[in-house]
Amino acid sequence: MVNPSMLRSLRSAVARGSSHLARRGYASDAVPERKVAVLGAAGGIGQPLSLLMKLNPLVTSLSLYDIAGTPGVAADVSHINTRSEVVGYQGEEELGKALEGSDVVIIPAGVPRKPGMTRDDLFNINAGIVKSLCTAIAKYCPNALVNMISNPVNSTVPIAAEVFKKAGTYNEKKLFGVTTLDVVRAKTFYAGKAKVPVAEVNVPVVGGHAGITILPLFSQATPKANLGDDDIKALTKRTQDGGTEVVEAKAGKGSATLSMAYAGALFADACLKGLNGVPDVVECSFVQSNVTELPFFASKVRLGKNGVEEVLGLGPLSDYENQGLESLKPELKSSIEKGINFANKS
Ligand SMILES: NC(=O)c1ccc[n+]([C@@H]2O[C@H](COP(=O)([O-])OP(=O)(O)OC[C@H]3O[C@@H](n4cnc5c(N)ncnc54)[C@H](O)[C@@H]3O)[C@@H](O)[C@H]2O)c1
Ligand SMILES: O=C(O)C[C@H](O)C(=O)O
Questions:
Q1: Which of 5-14, 35-44, 125-134, 268-277 has the lowest mean pLDDT?
Q2: Which NCBIfam families match (predicted)?
Q3: Is the terminal CB of the chain with fewer CB neighbours within 10 Å at N or C?
């Protein structure tokens, strides 16, 4: 059932798109043509994400791919009276056509967690799925921006990088691990605790996308609030465990899908704005990075016409955040190496 907050999210997604077009001073048909492909479009994330991308006026062609179920999803979404043409593709033999000409490829394909599992427990199944999808991306749309949602993101992004390197198509500016849901959660939880309007809140979240590798920087949160150390610790823990909170509440029926679709749509919209030359588009994402000694790291990233324009630094950290940063490095390093080794062995 659609609840009021989902409706508000949908309305604001539409409003953001239209007000963006109005601000830029052109009618929707003057915006560049952009093809977005969703791989895993029939899944729990894929369906609402497809809906939200259909609502995005920056998209002209929406390509919905899955191993099964996409004709129905595509037929359904295609009846919505917005700008993009929708085509569904089903099965591996249609993957090439689904990808050809894509500007942005969003990947929510793969299995979700059940209670008691870590994201790394998904590696054995999802690593192979991501590898084969990225092999096809290298072949059919090597210049696309890739938004990786499939878990474990800390390993699937390095897998994608290795696949693209082997194919000779790797461009570090075009590969993104989607960590936007961590930012969405940090903003929501902070607004609740600090009693400030959630729409005004900004909180960077850095590191990776699993447990303690998720490091929200509440010392940089705005609007400023006078929260004590215990509050900051509790907010940090809740943000790090946000995914598990949903997995447990769904009790075996998967992980976050609706909030993830919202977060994935926000991040894809930022990528499209960057491609279209909108200035100062900044989002957190897990990308190739020199911010720490680790080869991939999530931090604020400025998006532009070629993808990543600039990976921004961490800014001043509190002692608590500095400790968190040092504690997350060994786990993040080993998840990255696991991905690299998998891609190079198999
Ligand atoms: N990055 C994040 O913040 C974040 C948040 C939530 C979930 N996730 C991850 O997203 C993934 C998907 O979650 P979900 O809840 O949508 O799962 P789901 O099982 O509901 O849907 C996954 C979809 O992927 C499809 N799929 C499987 N193999 C495929 C292939 N080779 N090619 C194309 N499609 C394929 C399935 O048919 C299914 O429709 C999981 O790995 C989950 O852990 C990430
Ligand atoms: O927690 C999960 O397994 C899914 C996702 O990574 C999330 O953060 O919700």
A1: 5-14
A2: MDH_euk_gproteo
A3: N
Confidence of residue 120 (pLDDT cuts 50, 70, 90): very high
CATH no., domain 180-343: 3.90.110.10
Q: Which ligand is nearest to the CA of 242?
A: 2
Q: Is 46 annotated as a binding residue?
A: yes
pTM of the model: 0.94
What atom of ligand 2 comes closest to residue 113's alpha carbon? 3
- Is 260 marked within a binding site? yes
Helix (H, G, I), strand (E, B) or coil at 29: helix
Ligand 2 in contact with 246 (CB < 6 A)? Answer: yes
Which CATH number does the domain 4-177 belong to among 1.10.340.30, 1.10.10.60, 1.20.120.1220, 3.40.50.720?
Answer: 3.40.50.720
Ligand lying nearest the CA atom of residue 136: 1
Catalytic residues: 209
**Sequence ranges of the chain with CATH classification 3.40.50.720:** 4-177
> Has residue 257 got a pLDDT over 90?
yes
